[in-house]
Specification:
Strand order of the largest sheet of chain A: 1-2-11-3
Distance between the termini of chain A: 52 Å
Largest sheet of chain B: 2 strands, antiparallel
Distance between the termini of chain B: 88 Å
CATH topology of the largest domain in chain A: D-Maltodextrin-Binding Protein, domain 2
Shape of chain B: elongated
Strand content of chain A: 5-15%
Helix content of chain A: 40-55%
CATH topology of chain B: Serine Threonine Protein Phosphatase 5, Tetratricopeptide repeat
CATH class of chain B: Mainly Alpha
Structural class of chain A: alpha+beta
Number of strands of chain A: 12
Order of helices and strands of chain B: HHHHEEHHH
Structural class of chain B: mainly alpha
CATH superfamily of chain B: Tetratricopeptide repeat domain
Strand order of the largest sheet of chain B: 1-2
Largest interface: A-B, 31 and 36 residues
Number of strands of chain B: 2
Number of helices of chain A: 20
CATH class of the largest domain in chain A: Alpha Beta
Helix content of chain B: over 70%
Largest sheet of chain A: 4 strands, mixed
CATH architecture of chain B: Alpha Horseshoe
Oligomer: heterodimer
Chain lengths: 453, 179
Amino acid sequence: MNSDGIGGGHEVSWDTMEIKQFEDYARKQGWDDTELSVVRFVGADDTTKYIASQIAGESPDVIIASDAQITFFNDHNLIEPLDPYLEQWSDYREGNFNAEMMDACRGRDGKLLGIPVYENSPAVFAIRQDWLDNLGLEAPDTFAEAKEIWRSFTFDDPDGNGKDDTYGFGLTMSPKGGAHLRNLMAFMHAARVSWYQLDEQGRYVPMFNTPDAAFVLNFMKSCYEEGLFGEDVMFRSDTSATRRFFVDADVGMSGPNFADWFPNLASVYGLSGKTRFIPFLWQNEEARRLDKYGTFTYLTRMRCLMRASANKDLGWRYMEYFFSREWMSKYVSRRGLPFIRGRYLGQFGIFKSESPWKMVRNDVIPEIPIDPEIVAQIKPLEKYVLRMPMMTEWPKVSTAITEVFVDYYLGRYPTAEDALDEAEDRFMDIVEGAVRPDPGFAHSSYNKGVYEK
Amino acid sequence: MKSKRKYVWVGTVIAVTVAVGLLTPRVLGIHRLRGAIAHYETAAAAYMLYDVEKAKQLFEEVATEYSDLPIGAMAELKHAFLVYDEDGDREEARELFERFDARHPDPVLHLPLTPQRFEYFGDVRLVAWYFLGKIAQDEGNASEARSWFEKVAKTGSSNPSNFILAESKAILMKMAPAD
């Protein structure tokens, strides 16, 4: 996109508009060197190519990347820890940043690797209320109740069109990038199964080989065998669970969803008023009685300063500029930052900037708050959030685990326990320096039957 | 032999003349369309970089210069939208949307031409009717608002990703039933 005469007459790309804004600001400040290099990694960008560019001495000053990419770079000693810079910044010293979120951005050595913009709301399930109403059903509270409803959604024509074209739950089986695991995560965490943790020596410990995980796998397998996810779900790689719920609108329940973006998407695809959240879907009545539950959140893409930056001073000034109260406030305004403004204009104001659940800056208040009714539903989930430390190998690990789980659904492992053993072995093979769980630690749920929070 | 060669020459000249005659307007048309898209995108960039006045001016220019193209119609609507959304000038916005409506009795289809960005595609008249409904709603005129939203719902396709149609239907669902 060319924007002659705008933003200083640069060739402006959709990805770098914010940076050009910063460079204009830097010029106005009269700084000598205002050329900043920022690389935004998208999806599964080839990070090894980036290592080559580092060796060639062409490091950007700042990167924007996922947590797996950031830990990968940190493993190669490419990230400049931010602690010394932050200690000099009055905004940080005055306590304007959310300490819990900042702590989640620390590497295995405890150093702060980057700063995120905000944290999503705790993950929830969503269901088609209009389908429930058509069938005279109530929203489910437990896995078993959900399965009953998925049966009705699959076989009882919930949309009343006379066609057999609906399914219970939107699930993808694609192992690509661990897509299936993201879907499954909502159920695993609900059963309070975590994937892994770090031990005191900074080693990764798999945490998912438990009876609760076996329960979830058996539940998913039985639903698959009944056809509650759709016949083609194993084989379609051209769609996502989210797409099935919003665009195809052929599944009655979906998860994980986040309150930050769900209302926007529901509005854009005509599902406003037709859906409702299910904040808690208990593993069973016993879990509810024991108050045993779990969910998760995501941090948005972090910005990191690079160790090999030719101008770290300018890179840090960009960080101060971007995470200033003024710029963060633009982020959460109705029309958002430049990229979001593009969407806002493109969709005539119907698509609005997301309303973040929790900003990294405590002193920034979103212009459009999340609907108070939604907040009231989701707030009680905060105490159940399971946090996983950042891990470089997670994309590979999650793909490997997915392959085993899908093979289990297809009957290639005799029991869920066998599949979990195999998945744990693959985890250990991929994660260098991982340790098998101490029987008294990760397997506590095996021994006691109940995970103790 | 000579006359055969002559026929070949004549045939070639005729073929080239016809090809040039047919292709020139197309080439010029594509060139003009590219110019329109670049102009339109510059207007969008101005908005993204917080220069609303410049964006309005540029969208107005595109609307005037390329009024025969769907992108010109889109630019006209973007200008009217900014008057409504940024300036909060309902009166001026209503006039602009009404003028648009009067000038476009037949469907105007905007198809994907611009870079990868969220953009409205489909019959752009729906946009004007939607905002006429919004303005009526803002002013407390529920029955007029309903008639505009109903017009959108009736005319729009069943395309689930037409957000103007989806939003109009959602508003109709929330509105009190008509008397």
